Amino acid sequence: MVDHMPPEDLKACCASFYESDLVRRFLGDSFHPGGEDITRALGVALGLDDGSLVLDVACGAGASSIALAQEFGCSAVGVDLSEENLERARGQAEKAGVDDRVQFLMMDAEELTFEDGGFDAVVSECALCTFPDKPAALSEALRMLRPGGRIGITDVVVERDLPERAQGILFHVACISGAMPARGYIDALVDAGFVDVVHEDHGEAITELLDRGERLLMGWGVVEKLYGVDLEAWLDLSQEEAKEMLAGARKWVESGDLSYGLFTGARP
Ligand SMILES: C[S@@+](CC[C@H](N)C(=O)[O-])C[C@H]1O[C@@H](n2cnc3c(N)ncnc32)[C@H](O)[C@@H]1O
Predict the structure, then answer these.
(1) How many other C-beta atoms lie within 10 A of the C-beta of residue 114?
(2) Were both Cys, which of 72, 134, 175, 260 would link to 205 (CB 3.0–4.6 Å)?
């Protein structure tokens, strides 16, 4: 349970989780289901072009900012709380040849320090679900946008109450226990002041992630040796329990209770 954790500890825990080699190995630099494909879908939905300035909130290792800059020619500023991942993002932007248009800064999504109205679009992938104060983060996103500017969020969608086993800190930072039903994201965007809110379902992104999870489970012993980790302690799950959870997650995907959503909206 994370309800009793101080918000600052929760944020720090999330930032350090995504610094681990194991997570990076599992997810690559794109720390969200759907990888660059869903980021591209987000860019299309937001109508980005080479005149757009995009704010990428909770950018992790910068994969979304870099992909958007490459694909749409836009400029981007990514913010996150992990200096290690921000540094990696800067290196990756240089490698991709977009470092003249993309920069990365340490900043809290709930307290952005940019002036009002400076961005054409705000994106945030697989991160809103982890923020302790979601209304504050959305209200900051709204403040960042020029009038008519667009927000694009991709996030885990959970339509049912999770079992107690899936409500601990690992499940929170892994974007599961803080996830909301699709209606919850839509209402949160509307409550923050966004208009023209639209939801697209991308359940296939979760299926692909579960496939990867199954491959990790099959290589349990190898992964432990390779990374010098005790997976049972790290996940707080035995291999058998992890298998059962993945099988349960698949059933939820099939029934539509677990999915990945792309949400867009606009500042009036
Ligand atoms: C699941 S990762 C997603 C990263 C990135 N958006 C991506 O899709 O590759 C969640 C990210 O949220 C960041 N984060 C968590 N709380 C934050 C906050 N309050 N402000 C800024 N970043 C935060 C973490 O450091 C982590 O990089």
Answers:
(1) 15
(2) 260
Is 1 inside a domain boundary? no
Ligand 1, from 13, 130, 209: best to mutate by most atoms within 8 Å of Cβ?
130
User: Tell me: the pLDDT tens digits for 159-190?
Assistant: 998 888 787 788 888 888 899 999 999 999 99
How far, in whole angstroms, is CA 260 from its chain's centroid?
Answer: 11
Average per-residue pLDDT in the chain? 94
Lining ligand 1 with CB less than 6 A are 11, 14-15, 18, 30-32, 58-60, 63-64, 79-82, 85, 108-110, 125-127, 130-131, 175
What CA–CA distances, in Å, run from 107 to 6, 138, 169, 258?
18, 15, 22, 30
How many domains are contained in the chain? 1
- pTM reported for the whole predicted model: 0.95
Probe ligand 1: pick from 2, 9, 10, 14, max atoms within 8 Å of CB? 14
CATH of the domain at 181: 3.40.50.150
242 assigned to some structural domain: yes
Q: Which atom of ligand 1 is nearest to the CA of 27?
A: 9
The tens digit of pLDDT for each residue in 50-88 reads: 999 999 999 999 999 999 999 999 999 999 999 999 999
Is residue 2 situated within a structural domain?
no
In the 8-state DSSP scheme, what is residue 132? S
